[in-house]
Design a protein that fits this description.
The chain is mainly α. The chain is built from 8 helices and 2 strands, in the order H-H-H-H-E-E-H-H-H-H.
Length: 169
């Protein structure tokens, strides 16, 4: 069953979900961050149906998240490597990991996976920061406003929010 596209929405989050919002997609990307590159390895690790994996990989290649390259000619076999666009999903994966560590079953049982520094092996504690100031971003110290790519309906939406919630500026 084909799900609804968010293509008509003037929203970067909706645009991202059109690419990575289907079931299994972010787990495929997660495994690519772990170093998985070959179809059979994705399939074995995830336990995903082959036809679903084929469809997701095809879409990720078409979207420019992966590049598909042959590693053997007879029989023809491919591997899937993250592009720069795919590697940029790292922060999304880390954010989901942190949420799962805090609110998923890991909150009771401990983190199933840690991130460590490649150079010295110390455990990392990622944070979302504003690059120019180095300030940590939290829901309580940011607000969303219409950006330069906003269409009028998006500007109207944010204007209505400002009028109905003036204290949340």
């Amino acid at each position: 069953m084909r799900r609804t596209s968010y293509e008509q929405m003037n929203c970067s989050i909706a645009s991202a979900l059109d690419v990575v919002g289907e079931p299994w997609t972010l787990l495929i990307v997660r495994d690519a961050f772990y170093g998985v590159r070959r179809f059979d390895d994705f399939q074995e690790n995830l336990g995903i149906a082959r036809n679903v994996l084929t469809a997701r990989l095809k879409k990720l290649v078409e979207a420019g998240v992966f590049r598909k390259t042959a590693y053997r000619q007879r029989p023809l076999r491919h591997e899937y490597r993250l592009t720069d666009k795919g590697a940029a999903l790292f922060t999304v994966i880390v954010g989901l990991k942190q949420w799962g560590d805090r609110f998923g079953p890991a909150a009771k049982n401990g983190k199933p996976m840690e991130l460590v520094d490649r150079a010295d092996g110390h455990t990392l504690e990622p944070a979302l920061i504003d690059v120019p100031t180095g300030r940590r971003l939290e829901l309580t110290n940011v607000r969303a406003v219409a950006g330069p790519g906003a269409v009028q309906a998006t500007r109207d939406f944010f204007d209505r929010l400002t009028l109905t919630r003036p204290n949340q500026r």
